[in-house]
Amino acid sequence: MSRRLDRVNHLLQQEIADLLTRELKDPRLGVMVSITGVETSPDLRTAKVFVSIYGSETESERALEALRGAAGFLRRELSARLRMKQVPALIFERDRSIERGARIAELLREVAAEREARVKAEPTES
Predict the structure, then answer these.
(1) 3-state secondary structure at position 76
(2) Are 95 and 54 in contact (CB under 8 A)?
(3) How many domains does the chain have?
(4) CATH code: domain of residue 83
(5) DSSP H or E run through 32
(6) Which pLDDT tens digit goes with each residue over 91-126?
(7) pLDDT digits (tens, 9 = 90+) for 12-37
(8) What is the C-alpha to C-alpha distance for residues 17 and 40, in angstroms, rounded to an integer?
């Protein structure tokens, strides 16, 4: 990826996160939403915005719906804030990597606990 795309991705991530906290007033966004990354296409026409949503599955779906519905508003706000010829269309996608990481950590704790219980149950040789 080029340095320019990296800079655009980082700038979009910062500005979208700021807009979500300061400007977007949607009750469906009552859960914690984090922008985990942005991937802009090489032609700068579209940008995938990856979001991590902390809440139940229903709350997460509602929040994602709200973000997708606000994409036009966010794009207009970005065009007013940024000095870009064309602000990319925003496509919101859920980032489940944090959830997967937490699940893996939970499984590792379970395996460690089982292993410890097995070692304690084994008779020791004298």
Answers:
(1) helix
(2) no
(3) 1
(4) 3.30.300.20
(5) strand 32-40
(6) 999 987 777 787 898 899 999 998 888 888 877 665
(7) 999 999 999 888 887 888 778 889 99
(8) 16
